[in-house]
Amino acid sequence: MTNDDDILVGLGFRRSIADETIQMKGSSPNFVEIAPENWMGMGGYWRSKLHEAAERFPITAHGLSLSIGSPDELDFEFVKELKKFLDEFNIDIYSEHLSYSKCDNAHIYDLLPIPFREDAVKHISKRIKTVQDILERPLILENVSYYTPVAAKMREEEFISSIVKESGCNLLLDVNNVYVNAFNHDYNAKDFIKNLPLDQVAYMHMAGHEKVEKDLIIDTHGQPIIDPVYDLFNYTLDLTEPVPVLLERDFNFPEMEELQGEMTNLKKIMNQKWNKAYVVDE
Amino acid sequence: MSLTNETKDIQSKLAEYARTGSKKEIEGARDDRLHHYRRLVYNVVKGVLDQGFPIAKEIMGEERWDDLVFDFFKRHKCQENEVWKMPSELVEFVDKTNYQESIGLPYLPELLLFEWLEIQVHGMQDVALPNTQEFGSDLDEALVLNPYLEIAQFQYPVHLRSASEMEANKGHYYLLIYRELDSHLVKFMNLTGFTAILLDTLGQSPKTLRHALNEMGQSLGMEITHEIEQKAIEFIEKMVEKGVVLGVK
Ligand SMILES: [Fe+2]
């Protein structure tokens, strides 16, 4: 039976809003999400802020540097350091991007799209298992937004589904990314979602984006969530079991009340769709 | 290895383009969209370096700074997983390539190092601190230093943050860059050659002031007079006030 404890909405813990987040009054997040690489190996002021956040909120992690789709060998030292960090802050939910950010021994510091191909499925699935073994946690991989396909030999949803099936990993479904990709690559967002292995979804992201050309959206996380993305979220929740949902906002931060408003919107939808005990008081 | 060479090559090409801006044909990719990857990657790197080196950026001016960032990311393969540490790789790159010579800014490597040290000290990993007692101005007490500090020797007065000052005043400068325990703020202080070596000696392992002075006397071939001892005590008292020396064990 679903109850209030399963309706969890989180907020990205970012430096520009660290104090506001830690001291938030009124409706506040059930958890906060951090990018571990922005805090690992770091002491002093920011470390103390992270500890303050950890005292108030459970923490989830959304990584940047794993580069699971890279042709390069995994960075085992890094994965071991990461495990120590996740253990230290009691982080159970660790997600990463289904993309690559390192190649030919050089970090790119951004997410590049992987060719949707069978050999990449095999390669990545093997790596996922290795990472899960070291971390002693399930790896949760996110569908990323991308602006051009690269030498694809299968459809994106087939690529994602094959990896989930072959590796047994979990899925971070970023509903905004589906919207962005459907727009940029001209496919139907609902059909796309319907064809994903939805029983493996362990976490969701919701975010805003920016339309930069008449046929191109860039996934900036710098704007409020737009209505069509809420609609897609509504649709998705009919097909999924309750999982934690994160509001991603990375820059162009508004007043806290606005972010709180967005979290309240998400929570309302989640309650309507997922919480059988929820009574609409309208 | 399950990845075919073909797939690997395609991934390499895309990554190389994003990293260097040099475009090659990439199979099955949209030409009108690829440039966004270069733009997004470059913006991330530039943003991190702009933030890390505000003085160098201002002194060099937008155009020369942009050229440096461009060259750096193209020619240097970044190794840091944590992007906040990536600025240290620019310091390395400039050092290795003697970049300063090509643009006639001899102080550039030191200025970049100085700015990086501020970041480094600000983010130094926390360590457990021993219990200490107040310094009694005694030569035979074992001193405990603030662990969050760096001592650096420069030929240019980089701390003055001015191109004309740096150019006009080449010499010997010793800077202490340290993090205050409570505020976590990074501060810096001018040292003399003598006090720089003294702090460095004390920092290597906890020891008494007398021990440190004797070590210095031996390695520098100088006699440690009563006057030097008094000066050293006064210096340590000042360092206690500033939080550079935490106390005695
Ligand atoms: Fe996301």
TrEMBL record, chain A:
InterPro entries: MbnB/TglH/ChrH (IPR007801), Xyl_isomerase-like_sf (IPR036237). PANTHER family: UPF0276 PROTEIN HI_1600. This is DUF692 domain-containing protein. It comes from Salibacter halophilus.
TrEMBL record, chain B:
InterPro entries: DUF2063, DUF2063_N_sf, NGO1945-like_C. Residues 146-239 form the NGO1945-like C-terminal domain. It holds the Pfam family DUF2063. Residues 10-94 form the Putative DNA-binding domain. This is Uncharacterized protein. The lineage of its organism: Bacteria, Pseudomonadati, Bacteroidota, Flavobacteriia, Flavobacteriales.
